[in-house]
Amino acid sequence: GRILLASGNAKKLKELRRVVEAAGISGLTVVGLGDFEAYPEPVENGASFEENALIKAREAVARTGLPSLADDSGICVDALNGMPGILSARWSGGLVSGSSVDEGNNDLLLAQLSDVPEDRRGAAFVSVCALVMPDGAETVVRGEWRGAIIAQRRGGEGFGYDPLFVPDDAAAGGRTSAELAPDEKDALSHRGKALVQLVPLLRALA
Ligand code: ITT
Ligand code: NA
Asked: I need a labelling partner for 113 at 20 to 30 A (CA). Which of 44, 66, 135, 164 fits?
């Protein structure tokens, strides 16, 4: 069978594909939105990661008829009462100082935390993945990844807020998530933790 990974973010899609393919499910073909006629992204107006993940996965099923998996994710910063959370993708609102949305978002995060001392810079990446079947069956799973926001970007892997996030895990050894090899990130990350819970359902699709 086939599974559609319904993300318009190329770097996120790459991670989703990597984790699903690493599960080694024979007979399961992974496809992306690029394999279908383009459709406008649905409005992510839910009040939670769960609602937004379902909005994206339901739209993908309606458009393609395929079992569809969507991720809604973001970073929740303790000192900012959980912000930017579900607003993470476009937090800086286009007022970017650098060359990309990610650059602007990271600049804004550094500015918002400029007066916050090292021991109060805790944060969690959150990934909620929704798997929606053509018959309407819906499964929603969540993964979280604790760490701290540092004061200067490090590393070129990953995407988004990775250059500023140092995971709590000993295995990361103080590196940012942008300094981890792709398979190291997958083994620890919010997205990896969410997706592993879907593997039995994906097996059933094969
Ligand atoms: P789709 O909705 O099309 O999947 P998107 O990038 O708009 O793509 P979200 O609305 O879920 O996705 O926003 C997720 C944002 O959270 C993402 O753009 C990053 O800024 C941040 N983020 C999520 N996971 C991350 C990760 O693993 N590393 C760094 N930043 C991450
Ligand atoms: Na989005």
From this structure: 44
Q: What is the mean pLDDT of residues 56-67?
A: 98
The model's pLDDT over 21-37, given as tens digits with 9 standing for 90+, comes to 999 999 999 999 999 99
Q: What is the mean pLDDT of the chain?
A: 96
72 tagged catalytic? yes
Classify strands 29-32 and 122-132 as parallel, antiparallel or unpaired.
unpaired
Among 33, 39, 86, 88, name the best residue to mutate to test ligand 1's pocket (greatest count of ligand atoms within 8 A of Cβ): 88
* Residues 198 and 206: beta-carbon distance below 8 Å: no
CATH of 2-205, one of 3.30.300.30, 3.90.950.10, 3.40.50.300, 3.60.10.10: 3.90.950.10
Asked if 39 and 63 count as a contact pair (C-beta separation under 8 A), the reply is yes
Q: Report pLDDT digits (tens) over 163-194.
A: 999 999 999 999 999 999 999 999 999 999 99
Reported residue count of the chain is 206
Looking at 121-189, list the stretches that DSSP marks H as alpha helix, in order from N- to C-terminal side: 182-188
Which ligand gives the minimal distance to the CA of 153?
Answer: 1
Written as six digits, the tokens of 98 are: 């650098």
Active-site annotation holder among 35, 71, 72, 169: 72
Predicted pLDDT at 100: 86
